[in-house]
Write a structure and sequence with these properties.
It is a single chain. With about 200 residues, this protein is mainly alpha-helical. It folds into two domains: about 60 residues, Helix Hairpins, CATH 1.10.287; about 100 residues, minor pseudopilin epsh fold (3-Layer(bab) Sandwich), CATH 3.55.40. Helix content is about 50%, strand content about 10%. The chain contains eight helices and three strands. A three-stranded antiparallel β-sheet has the order 2-1-3. Strand 1 and strand 2 form a beta hairpin. Helix 1 packs antiparallel against helix 3, helix 2 packs antiparallel against helix 3 and helix 5 runs antiparallel to helix 7. The longest helix is centred in the N-terminal third of the chain and has 23 residues. It comes from Croceicoccus marinus. This is Superoxide dismutase. GO terms for molecular function: metal ion binding; superoxide dismutase activity. Belongs to the iron/manganese superoxide dismutase family.
Length: about 200
């Protein structure tokens, strides 16, 4: 059973102008697909051939298999990233809203911290909103293919800060991309579902 290449949860132009149709077609259809294809090629005929993606990531990490880790973790991160955004992001509510106020003071303060973390992140990687086992929120950063698919943090949403996520639309001005996405397209319903569940999101089979 191969790792699935998931469809986008919205149309390619649904996040425009923050993220253009061209960027999503390239980012999803080429970058993400390549990570999935390389993961499937690496696990074919091995004891991981039928394993869930999260298990593949954990195995590659524990064995120091950087090639498999990079492709499998990037497959997971990208699928999670697509769901972290929505055409109209809305606002957090309920327990998540309370947790945001407790940890950051306000939603605006959280969004500013996400933007700041993303803008200041050196080179490629990911910026996350995550919760610990007690439900306390924090902003986390991972470099390159680093992921919260494994570990002791529950990821609620992520923003991709690899250049290919924004360069066609915003050139080298990463803060413009982060502002456009974080102020209008964060999928707060997805984040709330992840927070309420209290365990790490599962990659679609």
């Amino acid at each position: 059973m191969a790792i699935a290449f998931p469809d986008l949860p919205y149309s390619h132009d649904a996040l425009s102008p923050a993220i253009s149709d061209e960027t999503l077609k390239t980012h999803h259809g080429k970058h993400h697909k390549a990570y999935v294809d390389k993961t499937n090629a690496a696990i074919e005929g091995t004891d991981l051939a039928d394993a869930p993606l999260e298990e593949i990531i954990a195995s590659a990490d524990s064995k120091g298999n950087s090639g498999l880790f990079n492709n499998s973790a990037q497959s997971w991160n990208h699928a999670f990233y697509w769901h972290s955004m929505a055409p109209s992001g809305g606002k957090p509510s309920g327990d998540l809203a309370s947790a945001i106020d407790s940890a950051f003071g306000s939603l605006d303060a959280l969004v500013e911290k996400l933007q700041s973390a993303g803008a200041g992140h050196f080179a490629s990687g990911w910026v996350w909103l995550a919760a610990d086992s007690s439900g306390k929120l924090s902003i986390e950063e991972t470099h390159d293919a680093g992921t919260l698919a494994i570990g002791d943090k529950n990821p609620l949403l992520t923003l991709d800060v690899w250049e290919h996520a924004y360069y066609l639309d915003h050139k080298n001005v990463r803060p413009d991309y982060l502002k456009a996405v974080s102020t209008g397209h964060i999928n707060w319903d997805f984040a709330a579902e992840n927070y309420a569940r209290g365990s790490t999101w599962t990659y679609p089979s």
